[in-house]
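Cross-check.
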Amino acid sequence: MRLQRKDHRPAPEPVIALVDVVFFLLVFFLLVARLDASAPFEVIPPVARSGQDMPGGGVTVSIARDGALAVNGNPAGEEWFERVDDAARQDGPQLIRINAHRDVAVRHVLPLVSVLEGAGLGEVVIVVTPPEP
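Predicted model, tokenized:
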């Protein structure tokens, strides 16, 4: 009587463990990454002559070359202040960034700065491009 031995093949590598690791890495990088709102139109900030690094976080108000506004990446019309007010009051007073195109008329920027500073929502800063060394 002859007995046949079963062919012993190594067990396949478990793919489930690899999928779990990739999922945890994806979640980790999503939590750690800084996600800023970008304007729905092109905004090229002016070049700075002096200044300091701007802290992150807060509310971003973008102003296009033609004066169009966006709050945290969403287009805003007449209700722009209500959107800024809602976003700023969620976590208390905070930084409010004005990201204006370098060719925008001053008449579009200064009234916005005055209204935001007068409302006391937080510190208002204007985004600029760092000077070339």
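The mean pLDDT is 76. The beta strands are 59-63, 69-71, 74-76, 96-100, 124-126. Passed to J.P. for a second look.
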